[in-house]
Amino acid sequence: MKIKIESVRSIGKKTSLLCAFVIEGSDKASGLSELDSKTSDLIKQSLSDMGGKFGKITVIPTKSPAQRIVLAGIGKKEKFTEDTIRFVSGKIAQKARELKLKDFSIILPPSSVFDTLSSASQIVEGCKLSLYKFDKFKSEKENTIPELSIIVPKSEKISKSAKISEIVSDATIFTKSIANLPPNECTPTTLANFAKEMAKKNKMKCSVFSKNELKKQGFGGIIAVGKGSKNEPKMIVLEHLKGKASEKPIVLVGKAVTFDTGGISLKPGAKMDEMKFDKCGGCTVLGIMKAVSELKLPINVVGIIPSVENMPSGESYRPGDIIKLYNGKTAEILNTDAEGRLILADALSYGEKHYKPRAIIDFATLTGACIIALGTNVAAIVSNNEKLKQKIIESSKKTTEEIWELPLNEDYMNMIKSDVADMKNVGIGRSAGTITAAAFLRNAINDTPWVHVDIAGVAWTQEATKEKPYNPKGATGFGVRLILDYLQNI
Fold first, then answer.
1. Any idea what DSSP says for residue 372?
2. Whether the predicted model's global pTM rises above the 0.70 cut
3. Which fold has domain 172-489?
């Protein structure tokens, strides 16, 4: 999608569609006051009819330089959020595609209503993400991607903000495109190849640990989970080291189970197809690393992605097994469908030992319990560090990728203690499933500031997912915009 930032009079803009935002109850559409009287009368009537209600889109044919005018309702002023412009911009972009237009223009809302830099970013994100479709395997593809012009006051800062948002949006789309791939098209090896290709293009260092290397170096969790499949496990390490040599890096870890049957503890057949999305945490890390490189952030960031396919076979690990993890601790296996925490524990320990980071953030579609607790619109976070947690929460509010903190005290740590090993891979019954999974991960690191993000409910659109135009059906790319905001603030 091509995007232009233009400092022109909106009234003279030659475009297929000229759009202005309308506040609920207002009798004006910002940027359209200079239209001829006949068109103005049409706008006044339309304003009266649509009322500026949130998400309401009204198209008015005209004879001015703009072939059509769109009035886009953004609701009541007291209900504005950081998502208002992003959401409505997505609706506008989808309307432009529906009309099969080659281009459309959006007038930036006035600074008296919204911050101009944020608005420009949100328009870009809303439009680009809303026009994404996963049609790789369809015979007939949607080829209409209209060009967007954002009409703004003259400002280099706005252009820069929009360009950053393009890179962030493209990274989110990159994440979605891989996460949406079916399991026969994305094995751990395929995922590693995607990472290598992306790293080469973006001049990052990429290392891929093979099965033999993982076994030799003692990655017991990754080996145990991955050995049931003919598709060998991998661990991908991406390095963006553009900060000071003395500066400790931030390590990002993402779970990438390219397909999860549950192993010997086989999942029910219903909705098992959705387990292609069990790689979303790893895909999120891939997307973040892509954008970090393209934004040329002057910081040190390392992405680690343990990747396996969890399958039942004569080689599979079993309930009752005891395995030794990378950090030397032992884990009793009570359920082979609690596999994500095993591969993440290895990756977390490796990241802490080899990079001595200032912070570790992990992403995982880890527990169905997270969906029971928080539904499908809010991710759970667990942390051992107040300062790091607060920074992530601040970025969550800005990007509207919503998160909610769950506790982790000694009582929860005790729930995963084992009689025959250092710990067990599930807690007591169904109690606090999301927290006991996090407790398992907490055992993998020492005192490094750490945030765990359980994205099981938000990584892809599910039955109760809130409809958002920029989150079309399938993978959502949750976490990419969130963490890129955090990293840019650094």
1. H
2. yes
3. Aminopeptidase (3.40.630)
